[in-house]
Amino acid sequence: MLLNTKQVMGYYLIAIVVLVSDQMTKFYFKNTFQLGESVEVISPILNWTLAHNYGAAFSFLADQNGWQKWFFAILGLIVSGFIIIYLKKAPKTANILNLGLSLVLGGAIGNVIDRILHNHVVDFIHVHYADVWHYPIFNIADIGICVGMAMIIYDMLFLEKKRRSV
User: Fold this and answer.
1) Which of these, 33, 107, 120, 128, is most buried using a 10 Å CB contact count?
2) Would you give the distance in Å from CA 145 to the centre of its chain?
3) Cα(57)–Cα(61) distance, rounded to whole angstroms?
4) How far is it, in rounded angstroms, from Cα 159 to Cα 94?
5) Which residues contact residue 160 at a Cβ distance below 8 angstroms, ignoring those fewer than 6 apart?
6) So where does this one cross the membrane (predicted)?
């Protein structure tokens, strides 16, 4: 059984909440912090640190000469388009899958907007342990993408087979 229009709109609304939260926080940090500026939030594990990512996850391809901006922007638009269409055809009972897809959708569009407007993605969440270990700086869109992908993988591994057997 496929999702109805009301359910699809609910998942699109979740994507919009992720997108708006992402863009509002990026706007705040871009207009309040200097590039590289860091403010301790929870010592010694969390700082707000403004960073620009010219690549993808973990700064993948950031050292290239600019072609990666369009590659990742187009890839993000293709993925977003696929998700928008797929959510209309998704099974009603696939709640985890559909929620995961909506989180990825909001995050993907948030990072595409950055790439097009700023030529980079604005990052600001800096998780670390003192000066011993640093996780790559990230943003709300990245959280949506990562949590959403974890939900999609969980659905694929544990729930999809059950839906098909019903």
Assistant:
1) 107
2) 3
3) 9
4) 8
5) 94, 97
6) 12-29, 70-87, 94-113, 133-154
Question: Considering 22, 114, 123, 155, which one is annotated as catalytic?
Answer: 123
Of the listed 22, 63, 114, 142, which one is catalytic? Answer: 142
| One-character DSSP codes across 15-68 | HHHHHHHHHHHHHHHHHHS-TT-EEEEETTTEEEEEEEESSSGGGTTTTSSSHH
Instruction: Name the pLDDT band for 56 (thresholds 50, 70, 90).
Output: low
Higher confidence at residue 68 or residue 47? 47
Would residue 142 show up in a list of annotated catalytic residues for this protein? Answer: yes
Q: What's the CA gap between 1 and 90, in Å, rounded?
A: 8
pLDDT digits (tens, 9 = 90+) for 73-132: 999 999 999 999 999 998 888 999 999 999 999 999 999 999 999 999 999 999 999 989
155 is catalytic: no
